[in-house]
Specification:
The protein is an alpha+beta fold and 117 residues long.
């Protein structure tokens, strides 16, 4: 299973960095262009006040590098500023994390329905 979730959240980064990395709706097309999804590579971006995560499928070993560079480019900062704060999940661990986020189990307020809402 070639799924990866790469990002930051309230668990790993302060509000200042999370605000820099936030992807507003007006820039969604821009980050997808940087991620270069194709017929054999899929990408999904999740950006809230408490997290910015990129879910990738089909990117293989390049996933972390591509996601980190895309986030840094969007924020106008160096990838090295983001790397110590990254959470990286792969395979079944990435799927489990996605379900935890969607169900509110990984939220600051347990059970918060923001993601599904």
């Amino acid at each position: 299973m070639d799924y990866q979730v790469i990002g930051i959240s309230h668990h790993t980064a302060g509000i200042e960095l999370r605000e820099k990395l936030a992807v507003p709706e007006s820039r969604i097309a821009e980050i997808y262009e940087l991620l270069s999804p194709s017929e054999d590579r899929e990408a999904m971006v999740l950006s809230t006040c408490n997290r910015v995560e990129i879910t990738l499928h089909g990117y293989g070993e390049q996933a972390v590098t591509i996601a980190t560079r895309a986030l840094a480019a969007m924020a106008g900062i160096q990838a090295a500023e983001i790397e110590p704060h990254l959470r990286i999940f792969s395979g079944s661990e990435a799927v489990r994390h996605t379900y935890r986020v969607a169900s509110g189990l990984d939220s600051m307020v347990l059970g918060e329905p923001q993601i599904l809402g």
